[in-house]
């Protein structure tokens, strides 16, 4: 029962193309995140947002940009894709409320696997 | 500097035995910890979490232990099943602001 949706799941494109990875959540979460992960590596935070019109760069430098015009929508854009952008991109959203210890406060989408040729 | 570390890249366990996955952190301000399971080309799936006010949380076959003095977190899976084979990530946050992840441990449960 996915509450956070990412499209496309897989994308293969040529160098220099502009791409947008879509992310939408239906949980009403204020906070949303983009992580980048290469096989066998940790998840690196590249962008985050604490609400509408709020965006910040994460700990890993990225040439991508994000926007947050609506609470539920947090798209990521690459203006000119390069082979070094090949990776898996994971969108997530979180709540401030953990009513009990053990709650899931960070929910991920299924991911977008990008390959740039 | 990596604030959350998983020093074992892989672990192999026999079906029915206990799997113990470990995680260390450096930031004493972390107050919430989570474990995720991930398959290739999929998003991480939440397993279990724990607040820093507790030292243990249990959910079915999964138990998470937190040792704040040692800045150490562990996930116990008992009994282990072949379907548990995946990459496991631990994560930590300060008041749910930004979540920091370890590099993962690949668990292989042999039938």
Q: What oligomerization state is this entry in?
A: heterodimer
Return residue spans of chain B where pLDDT drops below 50 for at least 5 consecutive residues.
none
> What value does the average pLDDT of chain A take?
90
Largest interface: A-B, 33 and 34 residues
Count every beta strand of chain B, where a strand is a DSSP E run of 2 or more residues: 11
The average pLDDT score of chain B comes to 94
Number of helices of chain B: 0
General form of chain B: globular
SS summary, helix count of chain A: 0
- Note poorly predicted spans of chain A: none
Q: Determine Rg of chain B (CA atoms, Å).
A: 13 Å
What structural class do helix, strand and pairing data of chain A support?
A: mainly beta
Describe this structure in words.
The complex is a heterodimer of chains A (about 120) and B (about 110). Chain A is globular. Chain A is built from no helices and eleven strands. The model of chain A has no long low-confidence stretch (mean pLDDT about 90). Chain A is mostly beta strands and about 120 residues long. The N and C termini of chain A lie far apart (about 35 Å). The radius of gyration of chain B is 13 Å and the shape is globular. The model of chain B has no long low-confidence stretch (mean pLDDT about 95). Helices cover about 0% and strands about 60% of the residues of chain B.
């Amino acid at each position: 029962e996915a509450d956070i949706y990412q499209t496309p799941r897989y994308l293969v494109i040529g160098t220099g193309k502009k791409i947008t990875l879509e992310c939408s959540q239906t949980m009403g979460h204020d906070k949303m995140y983009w992580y980048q992960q290469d096989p066998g590596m940790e998840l690196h935070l590249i962008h985050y947002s604490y609400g509408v019109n709020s965006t910040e760069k994460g700990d890993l430098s990225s040439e991508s940009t994000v926007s947050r015009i609506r609470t539920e929508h947090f798209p990521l854009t690459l203006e000119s894709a390069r082979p070094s952008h090949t990776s898996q991109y994971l969108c997530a959203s979180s709540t401030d409320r953990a009513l009990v210890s053990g709650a899931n406060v960070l929910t991920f989408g299924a991911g977008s696997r990008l390959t740039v040729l | 500097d990596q604030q959350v570390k998983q020093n074992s890249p892989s672990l192999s366990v026999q079906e029915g035995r206990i799997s113990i996955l470990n995680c260390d952190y450096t930031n004493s301000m972390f107050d919430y910890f989570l474990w995720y399971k991930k398959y290739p080309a999929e998003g991480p799936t939440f397993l279990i979490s724990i607040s820093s006010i507790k030292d243990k949380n249990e959910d079915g076959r999964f138990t998470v232990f937190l040792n704040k003095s040692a800045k150490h977190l562990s996930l116990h899976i008992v009994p282990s099943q072949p379907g548990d084979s995946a990459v496991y990530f631990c994560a930590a946050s300060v008041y749910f602001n930004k979540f920091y992840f370890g590099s993962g441990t690949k668990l292989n449960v042999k039938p």
